[in-house]
Each structure stands twice: as structure tokens, then as C-alpha cells.
Write a structure and sequence with these properties.
The protein is α+β, with helices and mostly antiparallel strands and 321 residues long. It is built from 11 helices and 8 strands. A hairpin with a 4-residue loop joins strand 2 and strand 3. The radius of gyration is 20 Å and the shape is globular.
């Protein structure tokens, strides 16, 4: 399938239903049901479901442009997570719930968009549980307009086998793709603002210091895109080193990208009325979700030290093969 044919209708749908005003309404406690209904009726939620189960049979690599578009909007629903969860449930022969589904890989950190989910697919390290959100006793974080919640209770509901790499590896590459999408949008916004904002008779984008900041931001944006594509290239059984490489690269870039975007925009960037903060707040949530760069660096380092192979050979085999 031509990816342009796939992305264009999806982007039109996002532009129609996930406008900045709609995102703000959901974050302020509004009903996300109508937005979710549009996603559910679009057919995109079953993009990863095998054709014999009624889906489109696409791979994670196939839907990479869709995941980045979700990150660039930014959609206040666990859309990417639901697409993966539906595929895993269909493969296990379990009926898929109609609402948004989270992927939960631990109880230590808040889960983004948990306030808008009806169910959660929980990885307990041995198997997956499809649990109603109420059974997990969600607790708000208290952060301003955040949809993230801590899930404090034991999951209940139907059980299914874990993917070979566990749910956390899949979740990590999804976060990487969302970060890549938001990074591209922030780079576009910052570049446009720098070319339009005039101080002392000329656009601030003509100042060498601003040009340098935007150049580094562009480098980070491309690195995030490549890392996300690498992470999504292995399908749902994501090897740990591949997930680690994708999440480390994108999470480490988040502080630089967010800081540069706010620096270029100045004080207007942190105002509630300006769309920049919708993206930068979500960036920081995705950075921490399912393990920050520090968590994945420890795993990747331990795996590297456990092998007697030279580093270049190990990287070629474990990450780029």
C-alpha cells in the first residue's frame, strides 16, 4: 500500500477532530467520547490486526507515518496503544473492547492518556491482562491538565501470552515514534516563528545564535525519526536492544528539543493560549513513560557487556541486523 494513500485520510481526520481547541477541551475534563468514536469508526484502529481477523494486516513499520502524525497533533487519547492492543488481542482470540486501550508496563510511573482509556493491557512480567481501568484504581498525578495517571491496583480480566520482547519494548518504540512526530512539528513551529518574529529591524532567525539552536534542533529531529523507524522495523516482537536504541535516542533529545522550542518562542511559548505547550508537555510525559533514557541505557549496557563480541559486531548483529 502507498503510505501517502494511508496517511492523507488519517491526517484529514486528525485535522478535523483533534484540533488544538479539542485537545484542550479533553485535557480540561471534557468528554473524549466523540473524538474516540471518530477514531473507532475510521477503521484505522484495526490497521495492525491480521486480515483473517478482520483487520488490514499492516506492520508497525507500515503505520510509522500515522504514529508520527498522532504525536504531532498531539492526540489526547491512547490511539497508538489501542492499535497494538487490538492486534495482540485478535491474535489471542479475545474479543476487543470498543473503547481506548492503554498499554501498562509497570506501576512506578504515570501512564500517558490513562484518564481517557476504558481498558488497559497490563504486562505483569509473565503474561498480559486485559483489565478494566476501574480495577486498576487510577490516581491522578496532579500535574496541570495532564491526562497521565498512576495505576495502583492488581489487574483483573482475561489473560493472554506476552510478546517475546514483552509489552515494554513495544511501548518504548511507540513512544519513540510519538516523540519523533512532535519533534518534527516543534521544529516547524520554531523555524516559522523565527522567520516571522522581528526584533531590531530583522527576523530573529537571522541571528547566528538562533540559527545554531535551530540547526541542532533539526539534527535531533532527524535522529528521532531514524531511531523511531529502526524501532518499528522489527514488528510486535521488538528485541530489547532495538527498543533501547530507539527510546534512548528519542528520550535524550526531548529536553533539548523542548528547551530550544521555548527559547526561540520566548515568553509566548509557555502561555496556555499558544499551542507550543500542548506538544512540549506531552514530550516530557513520553520521555518518562515506559522507561527514560537512563532505564534503557542500563539494560543496553548490561547486554553489551554480557557479550564477548567486539562492540561494532555486536551493534550490527543486535540492533541493525
Amino acid at each position: 500500500m502507498d503510505m501517502i494513500e494511508l496517511l492523507e485520510p488519517f491526517q484529514r481526520m486528525l485535522d478535523a477532530i483533534a484540533t488544538p481547541s479539542e485537545v484542550r477541551a479533553v485535557e480540561e475534563g471534557g468528554d473524549a467520547g466523540p473524538m474516540w468514536q471518530e477514531f473507532a469508526e475510521s477503521g484505522f484502529m484495526d490497521a495492525l490486526v491480521a486480515e483473517e481477523h478482520g483487520g488490514a494486516g499492516l506492520t508497525l513499520a507500515d503505520i510509522e507515518p500515522l504514529l508520527q502524525a498522532i504525536g504531532a497533533q498531539p492526540v489526547p487519547l491512547p490511539v497508538a496503544e489501542t492499535m497494538v492492543a487490538r492486534a495482540l488481542l485478535a491474535n489471542a482470540g479475545i474479543d476487543r473492547p470498543d473503547g481506548p486501550i492503554l498499554m501498562v508496563t509497570g506501576s512506578a510511573l504515570p501512564v500517558p492518556c490513562a484518564a481517557a482509556a476504558s481498558h488497559a493491557l497490563v504486562d505483569d512480567g509473565e503474561q498480559l491482562h486485559l483489565s478494566p481501568m476501574e480495577a486498576l484504581s487510577p490516581v491522578t498525578t496532579g500535574a496541570y491538565h495532564s491526562l497521565s495517571m498512576r495505576l495502583t491496583d492488581t489487574p483483573s480480566g482475561e489473560k493472554l501470552a506476552r510478546p517475546a520482547g514483552g509489552l515494554r519494548a513495544i511501548a518504548a518504540v511507540l513512544r519513540a515514534a510519538l516523540i519523533a512526530g512532535a519533534a518534527e512539528r516543534l521544529t516547524q513551529m520554531s523555524t516559522q516563528f523565527a522567520n516571522e518574529r522581528v526584533q531590531f529591524g530583522k527576523p530573529i532567525g537571522r541571528q547566528q545564535a538562533v540559527q545554531h539552536m535551530l540547526a541542532v534542533m533539526g539534527e535531533d529531529m532527524i535522529a528521532c525519526r531514524i531511531a523511531a523507524q529502526l524501532g518499528l522495523s522489527k514488528g510486535l516482537d521488538v528485541p530489547m536492544p532495538v527498543a533501547a536504541a530507539a527510546k534512548i535516542t528519542t528520550s535524550a533529545a526531548v529536553p533539548r528539543i523542548a528547551a530550544t522550542a521555548h527559547a526561540v518562542h520566548g515568553a509566548i511559548g509557555i502561555s496556555e493560549e499558544y499551542d507550543l505547550q500542548l506538544l512540549t508537555r506531552r514530550l516530557h510525559e513520553w520521555r518518562l513513560a515506559d522507561g527514560s533514557e537512563g532505564y534503557w541505557e542500563a539494560l543496553l549496557g548490561a547486554a553489551r557487556l554480557a557479550s564477548p563480541d567486539p562492540t561494532v559486531d555486536w551493534v550490527r548483529t543486535e540492533i541493525f541486523a
